[in-house]
Amino acid sequence: MPHDLNVVLVEPEIPQNTGSIGRTCLATGTTLHLVEPLGFDISDAQLRRAGLDYWKHLKLAVHKSAADFFEAMPVDAPRVFFSKKAGRLIYDHKFKPGTWLIFGKETAGLPESLLSKNTPCLLKIPMYDDRVRSLNLSNAASIAVYEAIRQLGA
Prior knowledge:
alpha/beta, globular, Alpha/beta knot, six-stranded parallel β-sheet, 32% helix
């Protein structure tokens, strides 16, 4: 794929969200990275039961911890972290091929320690009604992947 994008889910909790994000990744040629601990089982039996028959075709990497993931991640890889606490909008960022799109868990987002270390790389997806606390993780990941692809002309 000309965009070579990566979606990273740090400690995802809801299997349906991860399944939906996996489908988006497969459809777009994006690699999915799952950072443990996961809030669910990704065994073959569980995936079949959930109807995720496409999962075997997905480019997937599972990392034992956030420390292991960041140690394995290429040092010079372009990366963005998504948080509703970010000051910059997704549309203000110029995506590059090979960007790593990093998302936190559904109930808490990314850890504050990670956000504070990566302030220049923080992005948010705009929400125009203050009554909405956050977007669904699957929706947010899809928005990010397709915005990056749109910008890259892939």
